[in-house]
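look at this fold:
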Amino acid sequence: MRLVRRGFVLFVCSLSSVLTATPALAQNWSFDARNVGLGGVGSTSNIAFDMVDEQRPYRPIVLPFGLLQILPNLPKLDPTSDEFDLVRSIEYAASPIHYIVGRDSTNSASAFVTDLRNGTLNRDLNAYRGFSPATSVTAEGLASPNWGGTIKFKKEASGAFQGIYIGAGPYFSIKTAAEIDPALAAIFASPTPVYVPNTSFFMSDDTESQFALAITGGYRARFALPSGWGGAGTGGLYGAPEGIYIGANFHYLHGYNYEHFEPDARLDTNAQGLLFVNPAKGLPITISRNTSSNGQGFAIDTGIAAVINKWELGLGVNGIANRIDWTGVERTTYALNNLFTGGEFVDGPTVGVADTRVELPVDVQTHAAYNAGPWMAIGEVGHGYNGTTVRGGYEQRFRRAQLRGGARYVKERWEPTGGVGYDFSPRFGLDVGFFSTSANLERERHLGIAVSLRFMHNSSGNAN
C-alpha cells in the first residue's frame, strides 16, 4: 500500500496548491538577509550576474532561526508518522530557514487536508471554516542549482578573460493547475455556518513533476568596456571590476523520475447539507498517475551583464528549448470509495502509454542597479514561471548602519520588505531582513524575519 498512500499524499499536495493563495517564493530561501530586505533582488538566475556577484566584498552566513520552529515538529513532517501534517509541511517548506511570526497560529485548513488525507472527514464542512482558499490556481517552478568551475584562457592583465565552464547539479520541475468548487470555498470562508443541501462539490488538479541530473558545459567571458566608457575601474552593486560579462550554459538532462497526477474529488451532501456517501454518483476520489524512470533532454541558458562606473545592467534568458522526452511511460489508476471510515485506495490496472515530452517556459529576467556610495537602488523585472514579476529595493548607508526597504510583485500581489544592517567593524556586520509572506493555507499575511552575519574581505565597511 506504500504506492497507494504516496498517491493519496500527492493528491492532497495538489489540493493544497489550490487552497494556498500565494505560492512559496524563492526569496524565502535566500541566505542573505541584506537581499531579503531589498525585495529579494539579487536572487535572479542570470549566469552573467552570478559572475558579477562573485566579486562582492562580503560573504553572508545565515542564522537559521526558522529551524527552531521546525525541529520540535519533525514528526509532523514525516509522511510515515501518525502525526504527519501535510499543511504544515508545505508551509515549512516555503520558508524553512527564516523565522515566521504566527506560523502555527491557525489550524482549520490543516484539519481539512489532514482529515481528507486520512479518509476521516467531518460530515459537517462548517467544522473547517476559517480560511479563504483561491478557487483556481496555476503554479510552475524549476529548481536547478549547478556546481562547477571555469577553466580560464586568453587571460589579460586587465582581468578580461574567456573560459569554459564545467558543472552538474539536480534538476527538479513541477507545475500544477488546480480548481476548487467556488461554493465549497465559500463555506470555508464564511464567518457563519453554511449548509448546501443535495449538491456535489468538486475539486480537481493536474500536477506534473520531473527529476533529472543536469550535466553542464558552458562559456564564460569578461571583456573590457569600449573606449570612453566607464573609467572608475570598479562599480555596480558590489564594486565589481568594470566590463562586459557574458555567460552561456548547455545542459544535458538525464531524467530519473516523471510523475503526472490527475486527481478528481467529489464531496456529496444530503438534504441537511451534510456529507454522505452517494454510490449513485460514483467513487468520491479517483487518481490517474503516469510515471516514467527514463528521460533525455536539454536546455540552454544565456546571460549578459555590464558594470559601467556606478551602474550595473543585466539580461538573462533561461530555459531556451527546455525539454525532456520520457519513454516507457506507464499509467495506473486508483480509487477511494469512502471519505469517512479511513479506507485505503484500490489499485487499478497498470498499462503502457505513449512517450511524453515535457517542455518548460522560457524565463527572462532583467535587472539594474545604481551604487551612488551613500545609497544604492536596485530593481528587477521578469517574465516566466510565475508570469510577470517585479522586485525593487533601496539602501541608505550611514557611518556604521544601513536602512533598507523594498517590495516584490509576484502572482498579482505586492509583498513589502525591509531591513537594517550594522557594521561592528570594517570586517564584520549583522543584517536583519523583514518580509511579508502569505504562503499558508489560511491566506493570512505573516511577518518573516531573516538574520545573517556579514564577513567583509575589504576595508570599506558596509558592503558597498
